[in-house]
Amino acid sequence: MSNNKLAIFLIITSVFFGTVMLSFLKIAQEDVNVYVAGFFRFFLGLVIILPYILKKKDTVLKTTHLKQHFLRAILGLPAMLLYFSALVLLPIEKLTAISFVVPLIVTILAVFFLGEKIYIYRTLALILGFSGMLVIIRPGFVDISIGVYMVLFSALLWSVNIIITKKISKDDSAITILAYQSIFMSLLSFFIVLFFWEMPSIKTFIYLILAAMCGTVLHLTLNHAFKLVDVSMTQPYSFLNLVFASIIGYFVFDEMPDLYTWIGAIIIFTGVLIISYREMKLDKEIIRKRVDIKN
């Protein structure tokens, strides 16, 4: 499988598991506060990968980017707490739609800090995705709540985090990035949760375990996708979050997406189809040129 196709598969997988993770956390936060949910999300994730870390500690924990890993945790902690807090205040598909500012911010940052080029098809896909988001939240026509501001600030922090991840992914593996993220996030969130501790019920604890499992898959696939291709190429696929979130919101939380959500979703999905077709075609052209050169 080519890098482009594998990256597309990985990013769609990460989007799906990320949405499922949010669903489990939304349910869990009916019983515990955001600080407890955030701590267990990463601590249990660390427990899941700990056997592998201990077995391969000489390679997994080997890095020259320790400061960058810690910086990711410093940015990731408030991003996580704000986003998880907004889960309680907003319908899951609405929260997901607002977070679509991330691909736009990341793509712009990638130009300045990673030297990536923005091709016309990627730009078109991003514009369509962002337009779809605006249709859904309708700024100026619908009152913007505190939950919306939480998601927007979280999105800004997460966007910077993605750029740092892309930079260190050139040298560190996906599991190394995940290991340090789990370690540092567990430590930082532990010191906070001490002041806001609530004992989860057995049922809630199961939801937190499932959230941690989904989060582990999310970050492993996401980190590896960043290693394979330009970060700007992966971003339009983030808009698929809305499709998954709308389905889960309807069947799990009885949240009926309105007409504007569906119109926005169609616009977003059109952008994803455009970028998918172009990247697949570009990949075939590259392979064909390689074959011609060899012949």
- Estimate percent helicity: over 70%
Count of beta strands: 0
Structural domain tally: 1
Radius of gyration: 19 Å
Based on secondary structure, the structural category is mainly alpha
Low-confidence stretches: 284-295
**Could you give the order of the helices and strands?**
HHHHHHHHHHHHH
* Biggest beta-sheet profile: none
Overall shape: it is globular
Distance between the termini: 22 Å
Proportion of residues in β-strands:
under 5%
Overall mean pLDDT stands at: 83
Our count of helices gives 13
Give a structural overview.
With 295 residues, the protein is mainly alpha-helical. The chain has one domain. 80% of the residues lie in helices and 0% in strands. It is built from 13 helices and no strands. The chain has helices spanning 3-28, 34-55, 57-60, 66-89, 92-98, 101-113, 120-137, 146-168, 174-193, 202-228, 231-234, 241-252, 259-294.
In short:
This protein is mainly α. It has 13 helices and no strands.
Furnish the topology, listing elements before pairings.
Blueprint: H1 3-28, H2 34-55, H3 57-60, H4 66-89, H5 92-98, H6 101-113, H7 120-137, H8 146-168, H9 174-193, H10 202-228, H11 231-234, H12 241-252, H13 259-294
